[in-house]
From TrEMBL, chain A:
GO terms for molecular function: oxidoreductase activity, acting on the aldehyde or oxo group of donors. SUPFAM superfamilies: Pyruvate-ferredoxin oxidoreductase, PFOR, domain III, Thiamin diphosphate-binding fold (THDP-binding), TK C-terminal domain-like. PANTHER family: 2-OXOGLUTARATE OXIDOREDUCTASE SUBUNIT KORA (PTHR32154:SF20), PYRUVATE-FLAVODOXIN OXIDOREDUCTASE-RELATED (PTHR32154). This is 2-oxoacid:acceptor oxidoreductase subunit alpha. The keyword Oxidoreductase applies.
UniProtKB/TrEMBL annotation, chain B:
This is 2-oxoacid:ferredoxin oxidoreductase subunit beta. InterPro entries: 2-oxoacid:Fd_oxidoreductase, OFOB, PFO_beta_C, THDP-binding, TPP_enzyme_TPP-bd. Residues 53-200 form the Thiamine pyrophosphate enzyme TPP-binding domain. Its cofactor is [4Fe-4S] cluster; thiamine diphosphate; Mg(2+). The lineage of its organism: Bacteria, Pseudomonadati, Thermodesulfobacteriota, Thermodesulfobacteria, Thermodesulfobacteriales. Residues 208-268 form the Pyruvate ferredoxin oxidoreductase beta subunit C-terminal domain. It comes from Thermosulfurimonas marina.
Length: 549, 284
């Protein structure tokens, strides 16, 4: 394994097009066959403030970003002030020298180029991209190809700006190698959306909320091609109930939100539990409580989603840590929801939802939605008692069946009951599905493990990127449960057997995964971070070394 | 055991628990009359009834038809999901006045605004029955309920005015004391292409007995009213403001127009997508 890697930080004000700049750079390098990872950091405002995007590229697989950077691309002075200290000793600074500004780096007059061409102000980001490309020895043709493919509009003017900035930038200071693999790139949310589609999604209905909104945007943009009806209704309550209505009619449906929106959906989550309706909810976490820090990241809703809802009913909580897992677990989630007629929560967070991953999606490995269909024998009973608690499904429109779905406690036909014996029996029927789920999910494929070290590093969800890399670097045993409810106790015990120390790293203040592991009778050492920022590889490594010292 | 009380009967074995004299019986009678016709046309299996929570909602237990017994205030989003998933279904929603005009008022306004092809029958008795007698959004000012012992200081909502303002394409009012007339309204509402709304005056015999008041004041809208005339519909809707004031209370179809359907604008045809091609185009 080679160890070439190259991190660039692009910074500027919101409205400078930093996010697009980072994405274009990432795609440009991805097309060279380098592996890339993109992290986006932006405050909750439309213009002004400070935005930055870090794109790390390497010739080995990466799923996380670094603190230290090789190239700092500053569209404003604040970027310089904030990030210069992250620049490696041999690192380069690239900045806008318009108006005669001078700093100890390479200045290119991007603003003046844009002005001379009477191009829109936003195209300054293209100028910056072109300078970064020139400086790293990327031929202009490669840059032009990416601009032509990935720019949504004004390609001509952007190409012109790029050409001028490319010429105005000094000769390359660095050669970026060609990598071996050319893989597609996905944001975590895009991968989750595609996973649900691959499993047979028919309806996506969601109210916008960061960091889940891009699922809505992505599916709305590609609705026809993907065969999914996409609805943005009046609120989260309508969104989840609309999904339940669709499920009752036989259409696989999904909704997506963040913690605050999920709080509004909890009433309907109980309804899904009682009415035994299949439902997939994406909950992409951000720091709370309440509105919290809307555009940053946290893993603090695990307890919430696990216990949300009044009454007792089985549910599944799955937590992907990269695009590939988001794809697989969204598909698995939808499929489990239909197999067991239960709500499934795909628990993501800003860091996995809005980071760009460079991975293949396992298209051929996804489960398709299937369910136990009623065979038409006798009179239909929506809540027929079965050994595993799963009743056969029929849908309205079937001339042989009367389908009665209900939020009330009910008998096997779906007629309201308050009879004590009937209440206990139906409750037991529902809980039997939980036992089936436990057996289906407490297996080796649901706990990712790597290495045999005597010290284990446990992470969940977006902890994967930095966690896996640091575990490899330090020779730790890497353990990541993909399912958190039902908690895979048996498998985790097996994975952690022979381990001397159990470190648990997560981005919350109380150690929500650590508590679950501690409940298995294992002593845990917690590495927590709750400033809204994800672990970088460097920070996690430092924190682990402190603990192990 | 069978869901139907008798073979070929529309009603189920569920024991009816409405109070004697409940206005819901009139609505049930009207609905059954309409559904009989559907049964004869062998179209009943395409019907789904959705209800909320409250006395009105029990109607789904009493009829051997497809149903979704939802939760308080949430009839319309469930109905929307059913209809979007399967446009060939006929969706008949039932809601109470607390349900539709209190907890679920945002859904109601949006349902009217969207013009999804649905029917909503509101069992409006101006009192919370199942929670034993509190005031509702349509209780008259001064209503003495268990949560407003000194009398409600609020002015009632006029649901017809609200629905007209929200863009509903079919707005009607019925009276549970005239089930035959009501059956006609429900029939027309189900035939209507678009969001059809019927506010049904429904006396609660136990907590707010309005039979005498309604019997005196209710009057069927005559043929002189043009339901395509929005101004005339609004004028008629404002004739009585849901207060205890003595006034003629029109029942019948206030407003009926055709507008484009929501589901036709938003629904995407089912297909098996080519994900490899999609990824090659948008992600490589």
């Amino acid at each position: 394994m080679s160890n070439f890697e190259f991190s660039v930080l692009f910074g500027g004000r919101a409205g400078d097009g930093i996010r697009q700049l980072g994405q274009l750079w990432a795609r440009l390098l991805a097309r060279r066959g380098l592996r890339v990872f993109l992290y986006d950091d932006y405050p909750s405002l439309i213009r002004g403030g400070h935005n930055f995007t870090v794109v790390r590229a390497a010739d080995f697989p990466i799923l996380a970003h670094r603190e230290r950077i090789n190239l700092l691309v500053a569209l404003n002075e604040e970027t310089l002030q904030r990030h210069q200290e992250n620049l490696l000793p041999q690192g380069l600074l690239l900045y806008d020298s318009s108006g005669g500004r001078e700093f100890s780096g390479l200045g290119v007059p991007w603003k003046e180029i844009v002005k001379e061409l009477s191009a829109p102000e936003i195209t300054r980001n293209t100028a910056a991209l072109a300078s970064a490309a020139k400086l790293t020895g990327i031929p202009f043709e490669e840059l032009a190809a990416t601009l032509e493919k990935d720019l949504p509009r004004a390609r001509e003017v952007n190409l012109e700006v790029a050409r001028r900035a490319y010429v105005a930038t000094p000769e390359p200071r660095l050669e970026l190698p060609q990598g071996a693999e050319r893989l597609p790139t996905f944001f975590g949310n895009e991968a989750a959306a595609l996973g649900a589609v691959a499993a047979g999604l028919r309806l996506y209905v969601a109210y916008p909320m960061t960091p889940a909104s891009s699922i809505l945007h992505y599916l709305a943009q590609h609705a026809e091609a993907l065969g999914v009806t996409v609805i943005h209704p009046e609120n989260e309550i309508a969104a989840v109930l609309c999904a339940l209505g669709a499920a009752a009619a036989g259409a696989p449906a999904m909704t997506g939100t963040s913690g605050g929106g999920f709080a509004l959906m909890v009433e309907a989550l109980s309804l899904a539990g009682q009415a035994e309706l299949p439902l997939l909810v994406v909950e992409s976490q951000r720091p709370g409580p309440s509105t919290g820090v809307p555009t940053y990241t946290a893993q603090a809703d695990l307890d919430f989603v696990t216990y949300a809802g009044h009454g007792e009913f089985p549910r599944v909580v799955l937590a992907p840590g990269d695009a590939e897992e988001a794809f697989l677990l969204a598909a698995k989630g939808l499929s489990l929801a239909w197999s067991y007629q239960v709500p499934v929560i795909l628990l993501m967070d800003k860091h996995v939802s809005e980071s760009l991953f460079h991975q293949e999606l396992p298209l051929s490995r996804v489960p398709r939605v299937s369910f136990r269909a009623w065979e038409g024998q006798g009179e239909y009973q929506r809540y027929a008692f079965t050994e595993d608690g799963v009743s056969p499904l029929a849908f309205p429109g079937d001339p042989r069946a009367v389908v009665k779905v209900t939020s009330y406690e009910h008998d096997s036909y779906g007629i309201t009951t308050e009879d004590p014996e009937a209440i206990s029996r139906m409750q037991e029927k529902r809980l039997r599905k939980g036992e089936g789920l436990r057996q289906a999910l407490d297996g080796p494929e649901m706990v990712r493990t790597e290495g045999e070290g005597e010290v284990a590093l446990c992470v969940w969800g977006s902890g994967r990127g930095a966690g896996l890399e640091v575990a490899r670097r330090l020779g730790l045993r890497y353990v990541q449960p993909l399912v958190l409810e039902p908690f895979p106790e048996k498998t985790l015990r097996a994975r952690l057997s022979g381990v001397r120390r159990v470190l648990v790293a997560e981005t919350n203040a109380t150690g929500q995964l650590a508590r679950r592991i501690a409940a298995l009778g294992l002593k845990t050492e917690r590495i927590l971070k709750y400033d809204g920022r994800p672990f970088t590889v460097d920070e996690l490594e430092r924190r682990i070394k402190e603990v192990l010292r | 055991m069978s869901l139907r009380r008798r073979p070929e009967a529309l009603d189920t074995y569920a024991v009816n628990t409405w109070c004697p004299g409940c206005g819901n019986f009139g609505i049930l009678t009207a609905v059954k009359r309409v559904l009989k016709g559907w049964e004869e046309r062998e179209a009943l299996h395409r019907l789904v009834m959705v209800s909320g929570i409250g006395c009105h909602a029990k109607i789904v237990d009493y009829l051997a038809v497809n149903s979704f017994y939802s939760i308080h205030g949430r009839v319309l989003p469930v109905a929307m999901g059913l209809k979007l998933a399967r446009p060939e279904l006929t969706v008949l929603g039932h809601a109470g006045d607390g349900d539709a005009y209190g907890e679920g008022i945002a859904h109601l306004i949006f349902a009217a605004k969207r013009n999804l092809d649905l029917t909503l029958v509101v069992h409006n008795n101006s009192v919370y029955g199942l929670t034993t007698g509190q005031f509702t959004p349509t209780s008259p000012k001064g209503f003495k309920g268990r949560s407003t012992p000194k009398g409600s200081p609020e002015t009632p909502i006029n649901p017809l005015e609200l629905m007209l303002a929200s863009g509903a394409t079919f707005v009607a009012r019925g009276y549970a004391g005239r089930p035959e007339h009501l059956a006609g309204l429900i029939e027309e509402a189900l035939k209507h292409r678009g969001f059809a709304f019927i506010d049904v005056l429904q006396p609660c015999y136990t907590f707010f007995n309005t039979y005498e008041f309604y019997n005196q004041h209710v009057k069927e809208i005559g043929p002189e009213h043009d339901p395509a005339d929005f101004e005339a519909a609004l004028h008629l809707a404002l004739q009585w403001d849901y207060s205890a004031r003595e006034a003629e209370i029109p029942i019948g179809i206030f407003y009926r127009v055709e507008k484009p359907l929501y589901e036709e604008a938003v629904r995407v045809p089912e297909k098996t997508p080519d994900l490899s091609a999609h990824i090659a185009t948008h992600h490589l």
